[in-house]
Amino acid sequence: MKFDFDLQMFGNGGGTVVNATGNYVNAYTGATTAFSGTNTLAPEMKTYYDKELLENARPEMVHAQFGRKQAIPRGRGKVIEWRKFNTLANAGALTEGVIPDGQKLGVSNITDEVAQYGTYVSVSDQLELTAIDPVILEAQTELSASAARTRDELIRNDIVAGTSVIYARKNDTTDVTSRANLDATAKLTPDTINRAVTFLKKNHAPTINGDYVAIIHPSVAYDLRSSDAWLDVHKYDATAEIFDGEIGKLHGVRFVETTQAKVLKGTGCPTGLAVYCTLILGKEAYGTVDVEGGGLEMIVHDKHQAGGPLDQFSTIGYKLMTNGAKILYEDRMVRVESCGTYSATDEAN
């Protein structure tokens, strides 16, 4: 005996409406239905893109690693305040039975204000349909890089303006007293690093996990790594924490390499030569701000949400709130300015 069964009857409900990444799909016919109202998976897509944004951006945010992080709670305004207590003098000898004078305890405050930054791209529905590459994912990757550079440059530009500076010596022997007097022989050397470390030690600058940290441009690292005293990062103790971008160690300074390290050229610099700014940092020399609910965020609107009356485009972008950075202790950081092998060809950034 032969029986005919309607198999779709048993799958009705689960098969006619399948939740997909951009719409509903009928598993039997392939027909799609757009999300409507609150019935959307956009939050799930946002979570994915936020995760990808942070993972792709993190390695590029070198300068953000070493600041003192301060949070502004939601609803508490846009201005942040750091407080610093004065340094007390050493104790003196006591006279028997005599109460000594007490010291004056003081505190100073430093304030800064956050601002919002952001950008986005629009992708047409036709581009999504016809492009060989996954356009939204590619846009997300490029936006991640943009977000990282934006925040890192804001921090860098604030802290590179510090007042403590050492100039590399010409041929490592002749002192230089200004940026304009540097020349192609004024390269970053182990002796220059030693001078910077001595400056920080004399100012009692605390270290970061036992060492100072330098943020260095690859062109400068090229000149420095030829030193016999240089220790590559893979030769460290295996238990040591490795910073993003870390390449090696010299004279108690751990070096973090990035093309975002400040490069100057033109006004105030030696004619035709780039000047590199290597920042050597102690603990919490500067502060950065995280605003509750205002951190780095990826925002994706598919064409059904943002594409106008004819669903013609999607948008993907990011925004963040930041103060850049605020120098808290000038005596815990020093900027080393030098030229190098690539000074004639490198450009300002």
Total strands: the figure is 19
Strand content: 25-35%
Q: Could you name the CATH topology of the largest domain?
A: phage-related protein like fold
Using the 3D structure, state the CATH architecture of the largest domain.
Answer: Alpha-Beta Complex
**For the CA atoms, what is the radius of gyration?**
28 Å
Number of helices: 7
Helical fraction equals 10-25%
The 3D shape can be described as globular
Report the span from N to C terminus.
82 Å
Provide a descriptive summary of the structure in words:
- This protein is of the alpha+beta class and 349 residues long.
- It has 2 domains: 1-37, no CATH class; 41-88 and 105-349, phage-related protein like fold, CATH 3.90.1690.
- The protein is 22% helix and 27% strand.
- It has helices spanning 7-11, 42-57, 125-130, 135-159, 190-202, 218-224, 303-306, and strands at 18-19, 23-25, 32-34, 68-72, 79-85, 107-113, 115-124, 165-167, 212-216, 231-232, 246-250, 253-257, 263-264, 275-281, 286-291, 297-301, 313-322, 326-327, 333-338.
- Strands 8, 9, 10, 11, 12, 13, 14 and 19 form an 8-stranded mixed sheet that branches. The chain has a 3-stranded antiparallel sheet with strand order 1-2-3, with no helix packed on it.
- The longest helix has 25 residues, at 135-159.
- The radius of gyration is 28 Å and the shape is globular.
- Mean pLDDT is 82; it is low at 7-14 and 38-45.
